[in-house]
Amino acid sequence: MDRPTNQLLLAAYDISGIQEYIFASNRLKENIGGSYIVGTMMRTHLPKVLKQLSFRNEGKVITNWEEAPFRLLDDSIILAEIIYIGGGNALVMYRDWGLYHQVNKQFSLELIKESFTLTLATEAIAFSPSDGTSYSKLVKELMNKLDTTKSELIRSKPLGALPISSQERFGGWPVTTIDEHANHEEISTVQALKRKAATEKPLQELFPLDNQSFSWAKEMEAMKRKKGEDSYVAVVHIDGNGMGQLLRQKLYSLEKESLTKQISEHRELSKQITSRYLNYFQNMIADLEIADLEIVDLTISQGGVLPIRPLIMDGDDITFICRADWGIPLAMEFLRRLEMDTEQPLPLSACAGVALVHSHFPFQIAYEIAEECCKNAKKKYYQEMQGSFLDFHLVRGSYVLSRKEQLELGLKNKQQRPFRVNGTGDLNAPHSIDLLAEVIQKMKLDPEEAPGAWPRSWLVRLYQAYLQHGKNDKAVTSVIEEAVSRGYDRSYFFSETETIDDSVLFDALEVLDSYEHTLFQVKEGKQ
């Protein structure tokens, strides 16, 4: 359909099924490859398609949106311009319906070619710059239209395995190729694309490390505290608080400005959020105190492999896998840095969910648990409309139940979480994660060196009593009374607050072996 000559087009793109695609298997190489494919579809392939088609249409497009000023309204030769890319989404302005449809067709083919199973959703609305409609209203209308399309979208998948064809072992896709670098393993097209991306593209290219002597983990072995051990890992999901509302408020405040000014401010806000989240993460990694920790394949003097693997780092959305006892401290430190940065004109906060799972546990379910924990933390945020919160969940063994199902077994009334992370480290603040960290640190002390510290055997007895009977049960009371008779009192753990909280004790006992409390301790003499 042709448009009137005075009309423009505002189009939105969204790639669906990102998390499912990345976490579709427990092969780290495939997770990394899936992460790279997802990360480059919008940032690399959409601009490439726009440039190719603009050349055919004897015009030009603006794709370097992070650097160039918005120019489409002032230059008639520009056929399209990317407004911003982030969070698996893109916003593009077109002059022509025809070019929009051409891009959709070509970009969809690129998506299939590069990923095989990811799905593209797109919508567009026509408008005239002279009709006075504000940019904020256009964006709101467009996103509502896109949300409707996504809710009605049937995600088609390629043809699955037939009864006469071989299937790859994990996802059940038909075998289409042989991986000669993995003992001639029979794999599917999806696996082949992910492994190729992981092999050809360095992870540092997508998630740069300031210290070039280190590298991100590429094998599960690098996530372990000791070589050969049967270990746990942490899946961490962090999501910004109120980003949609922040954007709407910013755009609404600019309604009386020119369209060019509104779009420029939208770009600047998107760049600022992305830059700050990336900087917080990079600075956090640079400040790790790892010299005294036993880490596989890591020698501080020579560099090595960090037991962390970022998988999603897009705007205010961060997901990574790491060594189990690094998960909560890393998430806690990242949120704390957001809270401490009070000098910025744009205050940011976020919530985090941490799933502690066996290394052989299905990663797709592990991510869903981490995401559910993050959503639970956000419920606390929306109750108070301020602050950053963190929730975590420990999956025991290979017991494949959802977080909700496990909580219904009786764990919910024993927990304090979600915890609040603030920049002051106030142990007496409601739901303070610093109190949890303090209790864990005291649990790790040697009774022979710290008066009042509990032996490990008594901590195990107390945890088992909490786990099996609940914090108000007679069995728990019996263990506590017997411990007191031996000189071990719960008040030892709460000497700074003078209030005993059994829920915090239970949470601390649950993650006692999954929390490295020295990860960000400042060394003596170090600023």
Radius of gyration computed on alpha carbons: 26 Å
- The assigned CATH architecture of the largest domain is 2-Layer Sandwich
**Main sheet?**
6 strands, mixed
CATH superfamily of the largest domain: Reverse transcriptase/Diguanylate cyclase domain
DSSP E strands, number: 16
Biggest sheet: strands side by side, in what order?
12-13-9-14-15-16
Approximate shape: globular
Calculate the mean pLDDT score and round it: 86
- Report how far apart the termini are: 64 Å
The amount of beta strand, in percent, is: 15-25%
How many DSSP H or I helices? 15
User: What is the CATH domain class of the largest domain?
Assistant: Alpha Beta
Q: What level of helicity do the residues show?
A: 40-55%
What is the domain total for the residues? 3
**What is the quaternary state of this protein?**
single chain
Q: Which topology of the largest domain does CATH recognise?
A: Alpha-Beta Plaits
| Low-confidence region ranges | 522-527
Structural class label: alpha+beta
Q: What do you see in this structure?
A:
The protein folds into three domains: 8-152, CRISPR-Cas system, Cmr2 subunit, D1 domain, cysteine cluster (Alpha-Beta Plaits), CATH 3.30.70; 202-423, Reverse transcriptase/Diguanylate cyclase domain (Alpha-Beta Plaits), CATH 3.30.70; 440-514. With 527 residues, the chain is of the alpha+beta class. The chain has helices at 18-22, 28-56, 97-115, 135-152, 189-200, 203-206, 243-252, 259-286, 324-340, 363-384, 403-411, 433-443, 456-469, 474-485, 502-510; strands at residues 8-16, 60-62, 78-86, 89-94, 119-127, 177-179, 185-187, 214-216, 232-240, 298-299, 303-306, 308-314, 317-323, 350-358, 388-394, 419-421. It contains 15 helices and 16 strands. This is Cas10/Cmr2 second palm domain-containing protein. Keywords: Antiviral defense, Nucleotide-binding.
